[in-house]
Write a structure and sequence with these properties.
about 210 residues, alpha+beta, 5 helices
């Protein structure tokens, strides 16, 4: 009995790491659409409202805290006050029109806000790849400037085509990194760790 238990304990960290590994964006969108397709409009308003609440609860349960990763080409870079505002091509291409089995509309309308120097921003050329890795936070029923109010990188708005215009919410990430040109950068909202003050050597009392 001890040996199987030992093997299980050895395998557990690898299993946890695999479960927490970043998902490819296309895989994540497919899983999100599949989940949305399980929640349908009811015969009455009450039934549809219940389905909308169940969908939001399911998104929180299955996707809040998950990690995603993708690479996308940069279109433009603006820089001010140590922050580069980076616009990109659509990382997921053009999504098809909503269907009963894939009923979500998904949007990313805000640019990436990345902390870097002006010299680093000037070195970025249009067409350079940006690789994003981030842990998701879902805000049910919230739209608009959710990233600014939660001090996080705003990512995607989702809306369920058949359960009402406000059925869905916004995904943000306050735990994310951006890789550009072989360098890693942090979000506008992630402050640099303050340097520790120099330690004054203790003096012996006389």
């Amino acid at each position: 009995m001890i040996r199987p238990l030992l093997v299980l304990l050895l395998l557990l960290p690898a299993t946890l790491r695999a479960a927490d590994a970043p998902k490819a964006l296309t895989t994540w969108i497919t899983q999100l659409q599949t989940l949305a397709g399980k929640h349908r409009k009811g015969d009455t308003t009450a039934a549809s409202d219940a389905a909308a609440r169940a969908f939001s609860d399911a998104v929180v349960k299955e996707h809040d805290g998950k990690q995603i990763q993708f690479s996308v080409a940069i279109k433009d870079v603006k820089w001010k006050d140590e922050i580069a505002t980076i616009t990109t091509e659509a990382e997921y291409g053009k999504l098809p029109a909503p269907t009963a089995t894939a009923p979500l509309r998904l949007y990313r309308v805000t640019p990436f806000e990345v902390r870097m120097t002006e010299v680093e921003a000037l070195a970025i050329k249009a067409g350079t790849k940006l690789r994003f890795t981030g842990r998701l936070t879902f805000h049910p029923g919230q739209y608009g400037a959710v990233g600014a109010t939660t001090k996080s990188q705003q990512l995607y708005e989702i809306r369920h085509e058949y359960l009402g215009a406000l059925t869905g919410g916004t995904f943000t990430s306050n735990e994310c990194t951006y890789h550009i040109g072989g360098k890693q950068y942090r979000s506008k909202w992630v402050k640099a760790k303050p340097e520790s003050p120099p330690q004054t050597p203790a003096t012996e009392s006389k």
